[in-house]
Amino acid sequence: MSDVHDGRAENEQIEYAAHSLEPAEGKDEEEQLEAHVAELRHRIEEANYQYFVNDNPVLTDAEYDQLMIELQRIERENPELQTPDSPTQRVGAGPVQDVPQHLHPVPMLSLANARSERELLDWHRRAQNILPNATFSYVCELKIDGLAMALTYEQGRLVTGASRGDGLIGEDWTPNVRTIRTITHKLRGKRVPPKVEVRGEIYMPIKSFEQLNEDMSDTRLFANPRNAAAGSLRQKDPRITATRNLSFFGYQIGYVEGMRINSHWETLELLKEWGFPVNPNVQLVHNLEDVMAYCNKWEKERFNLPYEIDGVVIKINDLSHQEELGTVARDPRWAIAFKYPPIQVATKLLDIRVNVGRTGSLNPWAVLEPINIRGVTVSRASLHNEGDIQRKDLRIGDWVLVQRAGEVIPQVVKPVVERRTGQEEVYHLPERCPFCDTPIIRIPDQAMAYCPNKECPERILQSVIHFVSKGAMDIESIGEKMSEQLVNAGYIKTLSDFYHLTEEQLLALEGVKKKSADNMLTAIEASKKRPFWRVLFGLNIRYIGEKSAQLLASAFGNIDALKQASAEEIIKVPGVGPEIGQSVYSWLQDTDNLALIERLRAAGLTLEEERVEITGPLVGQSFLLTGRLQAMTRGAAEEALIRLGGKIATGVSKSLTHLIVGEDPGSKLAKAQKSGVAIHDEEWLVNLLNEHAEA
Ligand code: IVH
After folding, report:
1. Distance between Cα 230 and ligand 1 center (Å)
2. Atom 17 in ligand 1: residue holding the nearest Cα
3. Residue 681: phi, psi to the nearest 5?
4. What's the pLDDT tens digit per position in 128-184?
């Protein structure tokens, strides 16, 4: 808090000082203390609101601290008076073990994009075609680059803060959300409904993001404020979130009980009344020219904002129009995101170098003259492959345009040909691996070049880094640096060597103490329990990503079945293409790889799918969907049903218990009508999912 600096604040302060801090007389002691605690909390929250939301300090730092210290003292001495929504909890309660899932009673939709005026007009035309007689007005909002949150309030009190997830099921991060100063724990004002879900964006101001990156060691830099906000919210320990200066803008009501709202503008007014920060740059306009003017204005002015935006959101104001327009797939027809092109800056391409990846691929990258793009210094960028360099005609010494479009690795977009001097050099990939000098090979019809040497030190290092990484075996206490030490010491020549490491070996490494050696050994031991698909993903088979590893693991069930499969059988698995199929097949023909699998088996790793017992309220029921759904995609609906224990049937059969019918149903409906299966509409499905979300 900063010092009170304006006259108004001083006046309000006098009014505040009129409330006594001393407990009132006449009540019994316990009641007095409770009333006193309530008063302290009220005054602290009021000061928070005035300071963080209204930018209008009403207490000095010292006064604020005094109230806080007193409240903390009382809560410490009287633990029965502690509540999760006390302002003392804004510093964060203890770490959470599990992050519970949160089923969104009303799906959290995403937005269709318009990237030009033309696309914006198309969107408008589609809406007008559906409602030819309607006169629309529009609310224009900035599209804040953060993460969407759904905040549920019951009787005015914050009960859950959940992330969007896949739109149907998110994660419940309530203890962390409570630490965000601009999120009120209690709704303000007179019109407080029994239950409401407020939606908005959690974001990190650019200054805080830059500060955070400065404070962190190099390896943990966040690429942009959005990643920093997501990474800071999703902390197992809310006390860390509390230190991260996250903020919030409210922009939507998911649902509300006992209250009628007619327009989106009214929604925003209500959010302000309840104490939420609403972005001050929202605007209600009545024609498309003004919408376009808003988009153009903020495209230029966005760089002066203290937070990042990646576009503008345009929402049709009238809620009855919104209802009539409905949604397509997961996007509402009544709103659109006008996206701005990513930020591009020019810098010099000083050199092109190559890395060798975990599967032996040669990956060129650009050495750039360091340049700051919105808070992040960029000095290197990925160049994908040689073909990409040729296509873009990038030459060493060129001025190039570099962009950071929110992705972690910046991209080189194109050379600035007008600035060429003639001194620039055309680039060719080396003929030999820069790490082991083995001649590189090129596979016909593929853009990539490879180092074929399985003992290439760089390839081994990268494969080890991948094996221990979070998505694969998740050996937590071993990061890139430690992987490098282990490989350099000669302890890890092949992945199975992890399972024979000894404490003595680890203690011999520079900077390793007993505690960290023990942590590493425990983490290695724990990795034996990782499911089969993660092992598959960890093996560094070319083209195998997380998704394909999951598909293969569930299709074949264990490594031996996969070993026996022909390339054709592997390719037949839905979602596994010929490139992946061929790659897995040939990897499994190699005797060194087969020997590695046997060593991993002997070490006790999981090489078969665990048969998980299915639980949930819908166990024993099977569902089949036909036709288009309005509120969600079919895939999302199926996923939600599976998570609740239901089964998805492949066709109408005797064992089918429910058929759900969307728009334009297929032949399944007629079949189901004949066979007497229970038939339901989408509303029934939504109610079913909601019912179990609340359970
Ligand atoms: S409205 C159906 N308004 O953009 C309405 N979203 O691309 C959906 N976002 O998930 C959301 N600022 O995370 C809305 N003023 C704003 C927004 C906004 C940022 C994000 C939000 C959403 C994503 C959709």
Report:
1. 15
2. 143
3. -100, 180
4. 999 999 999 999 999 999 999 999 999 999 999 999 988 888 899 999 999 999 999
- Say yes or no: CB of residue 149 within 6 Å of ligand 1: no
412 Cβ closer than 6 Å to some ligand 1 atom: no
Atom of ligand 1 nearest to the CA of 164: 10
Helix or strand holding residue 126 (H, E)? helix 117-130
Length of the chain, in residues: 695
CATH of the domain spanning 344-366+383-426? 2.40.50.140
pLDDT in tens, 408-450: 568 898 999 999 999 999 999 999 999 999 999 987 777 789 9
Q: Whose CA is nearest to atom 11 of ligand 1?
A: 110
Which helix (H) or strand (E) segment is 466 a member of? helix 457-468
Sign of the Cα torsion 472, 475, 477, 480 reads: negative
Residue with tokens 């407990």: 23
Q: Is the CB of 682 under 6 A from ligand 1?
A: no
- From start to end of 593-695, where are the E strands? 622-626, 647-648, 658-661, 678-681
Overall pTM > 0.85 = no
- CB-count exposure of residue 17 (10 Å: 0-12, 13-18, 19+): exposed
| Rounded CA separation 507/518 (Å) | 10
Say which CATH topology domain 10-82 has. Helix Hairpins (1.10.287)
Residue 104 beta carbon below 6 angstroms from any ligand 1 atom: no
Q: Give the homologous superfamily in CATH for domain 622-694.
A: BRCT domain (3.40.50.10190)
For a mutational test of ligand 1's pocket, the pick from 252, 255, 327, i.e. the residue with the most ligand atoms closer than 8 A to its C-beta, is 252
337 lines ligand 1 (CB under 6 A): yes
Residue 497 DSSP code:
G
Q: What's the topology of domain 113-339?
A: D-amino Acid Aminotransferase; Chain A, domain 1 (3.30.470)
Backbone angles phi, psi at 26, to 5 degrees: 95, -15
Q: Which residues are catalytic?
A: 143
